[in-house]
Amino acid sequence: MIQFAEQIRRRGETIGLVPTMGALHEGHLSLIRAARRQTDTVVVSIFVNPLQFGVREDFARYPRNLSRDLALAKREGADVVFAPSREEMYPRGACAIVEVEGLSDQLEGALRPGHFRGVATVVAKLFNIVQPTIAYFGQKDYQQAVIIKRMVEDLHWPVRIDVLPTVRESDGLAMSSRNVYLSTVERRQAVALSQALKAAHEAIRGGERRAQALRRRMQAVMRQQALIRVQQIGIVDAATLTPVAQLKGRAAILVAAFVGTTRLIDNLLVDVT
Ligand code: PAF
After folding, report:
1. Whether residue 122 has its Cβ less than 6 Å from ligand 1
2. Whole-number Å distance between alpha carbons of 208 and 145
3. Which of the residues 25, 28, 115, 201 is marked catalytic?
4. Looking at the structure, do residues 158 and 36 belong to the same domain, yes or no?
5. pLDDT 10s per residue in the chain (273 long)?
6. What radius of gyration do the chain's Cα atoms show?
7. Domain assignment of residue 183, given as a range
8. What CATH number is given to the structural domain containing 181?
9. CA separation (Å) from 134 to 16, 19, 149?
10. Which end of the chain, N or C, is surrounded by fewer C-beta atoms within 10 Å?
């Protein structure tokens, strides 16, 4: 992969990287399509990164289906699928790690200690291997995108980070590889996460600016579903991820909840004057 990337870069051509953990869905495919439109060579990486999973998380059962993923990536015009083994990515463990301090410890990072250090480390490795001109991420993992942007800025990486809108099912549920874990009844109830964000959005449009009031409104929506256990509602400055009491400027509203035993996340970005 390194040699291939070097050849492309020597020819003065661009590389678009779509980093994934596989189990590709329409969200990933929208990133591949953007890379196809904007860059000469499109690389999709598929690697279920053990470093970003906690001990009690779903690393072992994370959905894996390489042949299906290869067919989808090919259909969308990817030139290369880079699917390394764990031994190739971490031949001697992970001694050197990348930590984006501050941004990684809050919100999702507080609930999943070590998660973003795992993400930043593997993305740094992928950037070194694939040498992308542009790397594409989904807004669904908003905090991840903010952290990667900051890593790239702080480490002067010559790569552009493009963050594309969350792709949703027709009822509003954010697409996620983890949606396959949901039973029929959980799937029906899971839509409450996006409905809660929608309710917050409507309240903001109606003039509500108090984070606590928005949080209460969202909780009320999700409480209607017996199988949902809200883990966190973060209302933060979109750039710094610092909690805000009163919305002003660009803010992010992030929700994490268990639907049955499946943990899902979603978010909304708002510009408030
Ligand atoms: O968003 C993901 O799928 C993963 O966190 C990523 C960026 C591929 C790193 O493993």
Report:
1. yes
2. 27
3. 28
4. yes
5. 999 999 999 999 999 999 999 999 999 999 999 999 999 999 999 999 999 999 999 999 999 999 999 999 999 999 999 999 999 999 999 999 999 999 999 999 999 999 999 999 999 999 999 999 999 999 999 999 999 999 999 999 999 999 999 999 999 999 999 999 999 999 999 999 999 999 999 999 999 999 999 999 999 999 999 999 999 999 999 999 999 999 999 999 999 999 999 999 999 999 998
6. 19
7. 177-268
8. 3.30.1300.10
9. 5, 11, 12
10. C
